[in-house]
Amino acid sequence: MTIMNEALKNIYGRASVRKYLTEKVPDEDIKEILKAGFHAANGMNRQALEFVVVENKDSIAKYNRKAIILFAEMARASGHPNPMVEKMAENPNANIFHGAPVLVFVFANPSAVTPVEDGSLAVGNMMLASHSMGYGTCFIGFAAGLGNDPEFRKECGVPDSYRYVACMVLGRPDGEIEKHSRSGVKVLSWIK
Q: How far apart are the C-alpha atoms of 75 and 180, rounded to whole Å?
């Protein structure tokens, strides 16, 4: 019998938020959330993750538009253009950051042994920490193109040798958080 503890309640209660209030998130809260991300498990304890936090509204708007265009270009270059992404690229009002007041980008420095895994675990920790503090988050896969964009990297002070891993938005949810039902756990095999 599983006892529903606070950690499990937090995990099961978290959901991605796609509509945010514009109120500022206090710096102390952002720092605590980043700390939770940095405390995630990481390959060989390299502690190789570094973060970029963007709160400037003009920068967020600029990066939003640029990320959409870059993602559409990446999809076309792969030979698999996506109609939904193309529609977003044509729409000047498309907003992949959902109006969030904070963007958090995760980069791995060259000492990382498992950068994707480390960054993914960090974002998971930050999402759970944020939820426990009353904030909403959403993992933004559409921001991936920014990770290799020279202008973005220069503006954010990201060294050329650092690997982009992820982007997460953060803020107070605007309204009720929409809960999504989950199907049962699918176990391919269980070898005993």
A: 28
